[in-house]
Amino acid sequence: MLSLFSNKPLLEEDSIHWMFDTYAWALDQFDAEYFYRHSVLVLPTNEFFPGRADSHAGMAELIFRQVANYTGIGHWPVKVVAEQACQISRNTQFAIEGPLRQKNASTDLQTASEHWLEIPYNSNQVSNPEGMIASFAHIIAFYLGQLANKPPPGGAEYWPHTTELLAIFNGFGLMFANSAYTFKGGCGSCYNPLADRDAYLTERQSTYALAIFTVLKNIPLKQVQKHLKGHLRGFYARSVKDVSKRLQAMGNARLLAARQ
Q: Phi/psi class of residue 31: alpha, beta or left (left: φ > 0; alpha: ψ in -120 to 50)?
């Protein structure tokens, strides 16, 4: 009887296939060599996000610059602005001079200020750093995804999900898994709904996508689990096993080939 439950699929097969296909698309479009040589699993720790600022704007700027550096877009001409000051437009036209991603690159000051990308921040998320980190990583992925030469799997219908997965591909899977769902119970003074982020991938989808990243990067299981919410750790361990098994199959050989 117990075996009936042990064979329960982790996620719907269509969802898993889409994630592997989207990883393959990201490796093809956004420099597989950079992914394997320079991308890191970003941890929600003071070591990864040191420093403090004395204002919401200052904290947003500090966190964004660190997120940009881990993503490899520190040379992009971008500026952080209060959320009410701008809306992200899917039709924004922009170009990046030189390599799309660089390690430890500094901001390109040659671009005229009117052509800089505006990165909005939610001041309420200062009390929810993981949510702010994930939001910034998602916005960067939104712009990065627009620079692809080929459309992603699923097309426009899955664009928000694609950009979240692209942010996880860039190393921010822990933040996405941990902030995909926030318990909204308890007293009103303990919960600030404005500090949450909008999530398109579920907790489990984000955790599975994180497992793809860590298996491809050979990151030890325990190094990841200790930073995950407790109820996700078992699912993550099962996801790692599932991803490892699937990566040996011919259907995902292109992901393995990109590692060579």
A: left
What's the whole-number average pLDDT of the chain? 82
Name the packing angle between helices 13-29 and 203-216 (round to 10°).
50
Per-residue pLDDT of 150-178, as tens digits, reads 999 999 999 999 999 999 999 999 999 99
Q: What are phi and psi of 110, to 5 degrees?
A: -80, -25
For residues 202 and 176, the answer to whether their CB atoms sit within 8 Å is no
Three-class HEC string of the chain: CHHHHHCCCCCCHHHHHHHHHHHHHHHHHCCHHHHHHHCCCCCCCCCCCCCCCCCHHHHHHHHHHHHHHHHCCCCCCEEEEEHHHCCCCCCCCCCCCCCCCCCCCCCCCCCCHHHCEEEEECHHHHHCHHHHHHHHHHHHHHHHHHCCCCCCCCHHHHHHHHHHHHHHHHHHHHHHHHHCCCCCCCCHHHCCHHHCCCCCCCHHHHHHHHHHHHHHCCCCHHHHHCCCCHHHHHHHHHHHHHHHHHCCCHHHHHHHHCCC
Sign of the C-alpha dihedral computed for residues 252, 145, 139 and 66 taken in this order: positive
Mean pLDDT of 41-47: 94
Which token pair is 93? 């036209």
> Which amino acid is located at 89 in the chain?
S
Q: Which of 133, 130, 119 has its CA nearest to residue 63?
A: 133
183-207 average pLDDT score: 57
